[in-house]
Amino acid sequence: MAVPNDIHVRRIASFLHKEYSNLIDLTDVESRPQTEKTTCFLSRSQAALALSHVAGIEREVAAASVVDGFNDNGIDAIYFDEEIKAVYVVQSKWVQSGNGTIDLGSIQKFLAGFKDLLAARFERFNEKILARQASLERALEGIDVAFNLIIVYTGKQGFAEQQDRAFADLMAELNNPIDIVSYRVLTQKDIYAAIAGTMDNASI
């Protein structure tokens, strides 16, 4: 895979290889070209990094929470902290150039997958998510469990208007009459800060 021209992206990639190279499952892409496997690793390890910092969990636990793969329904990582009653749902995109934002199609797929999760349509998910079905059903039934959506990508730009609108519509739909869902967008700046140890680790 080509070395990123953006020095910040290059440093992020170097950190992810150093910290997660032995933790991320890539068995489903072993037969793919090396460039595709590398991108897959970077996207998955980035999801684990974001989850580790936002949820305040060990990187090994975060890496084990990655569910990205065929039939993931737009969800790249998921973790239920039963102690604080919070579910974290992650979508991660590796932007090699370091420019731009996450595309609307990826956002729409992620939100559709999340709504399938809320509706307990587990038949629409892969085996990695199905392995968590019992705990996720407890989360769905818990009256005081909150859902925290995390969108992480290595682009510098924040959401465009259409992406903002998609999340605003979801919040309006699901947070009536009681707020149960929130979201957080992590761009290149936030990822870099996480690596530097300056990111706010508080729950959403």
Range of helix content: 40-55%
Task: Count up the helices.
Answer: 8
N- and C-termini, Cα separation: 34 Å
Spatial order of the strands forming the largest sheet:
1-2-3-4
Number of strands: 4
Form type: globular
- Main β sheet profile: 4 strands, mixed
Which percent range describes the beta-strand content? 5-15%
Low-confidence stretches: 200-204
Note the run of SSEs as H and E: HHHEEHHHEHEH
Structural class: alpha/beta
**Rg on CA atoms, Å:** 16 Å
Q: What do you see in this structure?
A:
α1 (7-20) crosses α2. By secondary structure, this protein is of the alpha/beta class. β3 (146-153), α7 (161-174) and β4 form a beta-alpha-beta unit. The protein has helices at residues 7-20, 34-55, 59-64, 104-118, 127-130, 133-141, 161-174, 188-196, and strands spanning 77-81, 86-93, 146-153, 181-186. A 4-stranded mixed β-sheet has the order 1-2-3-4, sandwiched between helices. 46% of the residues lie in helices and 13% in strands.
